[in-house]
Amino acid sequence: MTLTDLDRHHVWHPFTQAQTAPDAIPIASAKGIRLYAEDGREFLDLISSWWVNTHGHAHPTIAAAIAKQAQTLEQVIFAGFTHQPAAQLAYELVQRLPKGLTRVFFSDDGSTAVEVALKMALQYWHNQGETQRTRFLAFEGGYHGDTVGAMSAGKGCGFFDTYGSLLFEVGLLPFPETWDGDTEVEAKEQASLARLDEYLADHGNTLAAVIMEPLIQGSSGMRMCRPEFLQALATRLRAAGILLIFDEVMTGFGRTGAMFASLKAQVTPDIICLSKGLTAGFLPLSVTVASEAIYAAFLGDTFDKAFVHGHSFTANPLGCAAALASLQVFEDEQTLAKLPQIEAWHRQGLATLAAHPLVQRVRVMGTIAAFDVIATDAGYTSQIGAQLKAFFHERGLLLRPLGNVVYLLPPYCIAESELRHAYKVIFLSLMTLSP
Ligand code: PMP
């Protein structure tokens, strides 16, 4: 049986159950920004394989670090045991994160990092006797993963209505989305802050935390907001004594042009969630990093205040070795210094698209560029999105529009000519749509 036969008969992929969906593309190998299919096709991976491959595929430094670690210590229980890759990684992350985030809790993926953050925030209050603080606020359009807590916090993205009976209640604030040339941004920010003020007046003493994707909401369409908004939000929450959780699962590790969106926005949250780019796409791993004050609330004479969360693979040494090697690549290749270049290339590419009558809301931040295609059917089931995706695949580009939003989020090793080629194909794709 061929790979496609095996896959067609026995594998259940995410989001592809439609009878009309084409067979999964059989990928044999990958290098840099290229994916190589079994049937000889090649794809430029312009979405970093779901936003994880920061340095491109199969980077030799990271591959070697994993191979070396696999021969020394591949896995050990992390309750009551420790190892060099985990402790060193915790140290290295703390050096790079906003000052004050000092305690690193390991888990396995972005959804779980969020789950951990929500449980931490709830128990932080519980351990101090404030058991009434059980509510969470999130943002319309926010996505935080697809475990139950993460779906609850992300119900504002609208994907999870089927699972409503599993979810807990979360309040939603409007996300003050902005784009190039937007003149209404301040009014949108004021409206969102006003909604927060109302919520604080009504429920402030029962609120545990606010969770958000800082600067860019990824899954709901690369929707961007200004640092000024995050600063105003953080100031209000600090004054009210409410915790702020930043979900930097997508924005972390250089995506916004800075190592973390929180650094770019100059806002320090109480808890931060990281995954995706943490291991540069090599292995599943995540961390939830908290302030010392939060950690202190979990210490007691006995285990009565302990945090009840631990997975079989917590702080897996292979994942930690990959993450350490990725941080090394950031240093060796001066990666952060290269990112403004990618932003400039995006701006040039988008300038050629912006004049097209179907293109709206052009936006760029760091290595992420996006625009909306005017469509009558926005959202995940957009026909235009499906049509464009097929067009891109036929021409060797891995691009997956989010509904009617086309976005690019390439690995940092992309060359100018490769990105220019991508914009040329996107331009051609727009020509196939009638205004
Ligand atoms: N938070 C954000 C902001 C994300 O973009 C994602 C993944 N798209 C997640 C959480 C969930 O991460 P994972 O898929 O690794 O569980």
TrEMBL record:
GO terms for molecular function: adenosylmethionine-8-amino-7-oxononanoate transaminase activity. The keyword S-adenosyl-L-methionine applies. The modification N6-(pyridoxal phosphate)lysine is found at K276. Gene3D superfamilies: Aspartate Aminotransferase, domain 1, Type I PLP-dependent aspartate aminotransferase-like (Major domain). The keyword DNA repair does not apply. InterPro entries: Aminotrans_3, Aminotrans_3_PPA_site, BioA, PyrdxlP-dep_Trfase, PyrdxlP-dep_Trfase_major, PyrdxlP-dep_Trfase_small. Pathway: Cofactor biosynthesis; biotin biosynthesis; 7,8-diaminononanoate from 8-amino-7-oxononanoate (SAM route): step 1/1. Its cofactor is pyridoxal 5'-phosphate. It is an enzyme of class 2 (transferase). It catalyses: (8S)-8-amino-7-oxononanoate + S-adenosyl-L-methionine = S-adenosyl-4-methylsulfanyl-2-oxobutanoate + (7R,8S)-7,8-diammoniononanoate. Pfam families: Aminotran_3 (PF00202). The record marks F15 as: Participates in the substrate recognition with KAPA and in a stacking interaction with the adenine ring of SAM. Homodimer. Belongs to the class-III pyridoxal-phosphate-dependent aminotransferase family. BioA subfamily. HAMAP family: BioA. This is Adenosylmethionine-8-amino-7-oxononanoate aminotransferase.
